[in-house]
Amino acid sequence: MDFWDECSVLDEFLTELKLDDVITSPKKRLNFLTKPKVKDFNILDHYIFSSSTIELSPKQLSFIPKSIWTSQNKVLTLDRIIATFFHARSSAKVRFEHKLWNALQITKNHPTLFSIIGVCWISNTIIKVHKLTFGKFLALKKITSALFTSKGSFPSHGFIEISDLQLKSFHLNENDILECRFYTHKDQKFTILSTEEEISKCHWISSSV
């Protein structure tokens, strides 16, 4: 079953349930959470954030890989995109750099969704990453090791962390400093203006932290 088949499965199943049923019926909640291909979808968390009512057009947001998204003219709810794309296991077609770019495309066009997604651009080259939020958004169990250690996704894809001194000009608040990390790509292959071809060159690049 491919990505769009999973979207169809999730769409059909969501149609069967109402929010009240999901919250008040343990049996239906269990059936939903254990349904094949969407078992990692935490419906309670995302309903709290109203992501079931947020509609996005991946094509208009220039999601990558374009080979998957440009043929789809559908407007999808955010919870469907989360469950079937951002929570999908990494593969040749769904890679970390794809997930990062698409998440940034959402917050670039809808800044208020940073509280759900956890990444955004603060300049053309610097990314703000809320550690806990972005880790949960990707359904990671060990967030620090998966994203930030020397073998984590950011360093291994060529990202380097910005120093506190470099961040002074951005007038960040205390919570940003305590809860977020800030990255730029060492070869500037991943910027707000990057093409898909440039982004594809970020795949598993050796990096020092």
UniProtKB/TrEMBL annotation:
<protein>
    <recommendedName>
        <fullName>Initiator binding domain-containing protein</fullName>
    </recommendedName>
</protein>
<dbReference type="Pfam" id="PF10416">
    <property type="entry name" value="IBD"/>
</dbReference>
<feature type="domain" description="Initiator binding">
    <location>
        <begin position="72"/>
        <end position="181"/>
    </location>
</feature>
<dbReference type="InterPro" id="IPR036388">
    <property type="entry name" value="WH-like_DNA-bd_sf"/>
</dbReference>
<dbReference type="InterPro" id="IPR018845">
    <property type="entry name" value="Initiator-bd"/>
</dbReference>
